[in-house]
Amino acid sequence: MTTHTAGGRLHAIADLFRSDIVGGLLLIGGAVAALIWANSPFGHSYEALREFSFGPEALHLHLSVEAWVADGLLAVFFFVVGNELKQEFVHGELRNPRRAMLPIVAAVCGMVVPALIYVGLNATDPDRVSGWGIPMATDIAFAVAILAVVGRYLPPALRTFLLTLAIVDDLGAIVVIAIFYTDHLSFPPMFAAAALLAVFGYLQRGQGPAARLNASALPNWVVYLPLAFAIWALVHASGVHATIAGVAMGLLMRTVPLAGEEESSSHRVEHLLSPWSSGLVLPVFALMSAGVAFEGGLGAVFGDTAALGIMAGLVVGKTVGITGGSWLTTKITSAELSPSLRWIDIAGMSMLAGIGFTVSLLITELSFPGQPGVLAHAKAGVLLASLLATLLAAAVLAARNAHYRSLREARAAR
């Protein structure tokens, strides 16, 4: 009886952590704690924790705690997101190419416009213009979490739009880092990772060796866990941001059950990993990533054109680029907006895409080596822009959430 009760409690806790709202609140709590800690008299201990390094040197994995979280732990979240997108592409909203096209084009426009705004404000300053890539990125973890907190009654198509846009945005940002902000890429581990990804995809087909694996008494994790780690480590060694490994494996998951299966491997893994992603990965990621210390006060931040370019790019550029690009695309191509959405929903979601954080902070570090003052102001600009984007998006999306809630209640009353 005791074992049965304990098992029931664990299932209840897991179900609680599967909620986007709970995960979002934990994420926000981690970010707030990081900000307070980093700007407190104990801020040095926060930096010491983030910079503490461990791991095998031989595998090029002697990394700081911050890097293990941002490159390693966050790959689990990206795997869950990639897996969810695969289900949408095969069975859901994105199986219609005319609707799938829209968030992809929107993501591109939402990268180009912020970069142009930044360059416009910093074109004459060679010390700062190199930061043009900073406002291009959307932090998918924070954006999805905020959407969950303020938008319980919003159409599911809006979340799918945001996920697709943010994934394309992240891929674009990774390409920008690889081409413009990386000294060199290592192609042997990149090709090796691609080969192992092909093996991963083949095993998902459930044919040949994969079929024998499924039929054997050997647990699948004994094969897939080392394979997934090897893929991640090789992608990391190649110089490409390692979270791309999580996205790639998620997109390769099988969404159709095999003969004799009650559910597909995609749904099984989603059920298993979602609580860990929401309850552990995202809060720890927020705790290690959001601790930006304000140096020199807000006056110094607003007096720096790098910080102003970042804020204008993320807050204004994302909104104009995504909303305008989406609307224009529907006018000149066959792309279409989901019937369940309105343009004001897209505008609110595009404001939410102005949350920069992880990749923006990464590009900030790469943009201003040897310029600690500009670096500190740029980081503060990312933080302030993300906060402002959150507040603006929350105001719009909360109003839309109330609208959709009243519609649902009206239908239920009939």
Tell me the CATH architecture: Up-down Bundle
Order of helices and strands: HHHEEHHHHHHHHHHHHHH
Number of helices: 17
Distance between the termini: 45 Å
How many β-strands, per DSSP? 2
Fourth-level CATH superfamily: Na+/H+ antiporter like domain
With strands numbered from the N-terminus, the spatial order across the biggest sheet is 1-2
Helix percent band: over 70%
**pLDDT averaged residue by residue:** 86
Question: How would you classify the helix and strand content by structural class?
Answer: mainly alpha
**Rg on CA atoms, Å:** 22 Å
Overall form: globular
Assembly state here? single chain
CATH class: Mainly Alpha
Low-confidence stretches: none
Write the layout of secondary structure elements.
Layout lengths: L1 H16 L2 H19 L4 H9 L1 E2 L8 E2 H27 L5 H26 L17 H11 L5 H25 L6 H18 L4 H7 L4 H19 L4 H9 L13 H25 L7 H6 L2 H28 L10 H10 L5 H10 L4 H42 L1
Helix pairs in contact: 1-12, 2-6, 2-12, 4-7, 4-11, 4-12, 5-7, 5-14, 6-7, 6-17, 8-10, 10-11, 14-15, 14-17, 15-17, 16-17
Description of the structure:
- This protein has helices at residues 2-17, 20-38, 43-51, 65-91, 97-122, 140-150, 156-180, 187-204, 209-215, 220-238, 243-251, 265-289, 297-302, 305-332, 343-352, 358-367, 372-413; strands spanning 53-54, 63-64.
- It has one domain: Up-down Bundle (Na+/H+ antiporter like fold).
- The protein starts with a helix and ends with a helix.
- It has 414 residues and is an all-alpha fold.
- Strand 1 and strand 2 (63-64) form a beta hairpin.
- The protein has a two-stranded antiparallel ribbon with strand order 1-2.
- The protein is built from 17 helices and 2 strands.
- The mean pLDDT is 86.
- Helix 4 (65-91) packs across helix 7, helix 5 packs antiparallel against helix 14 and helix 16 runs antiparallel to helix 17 (372-413).
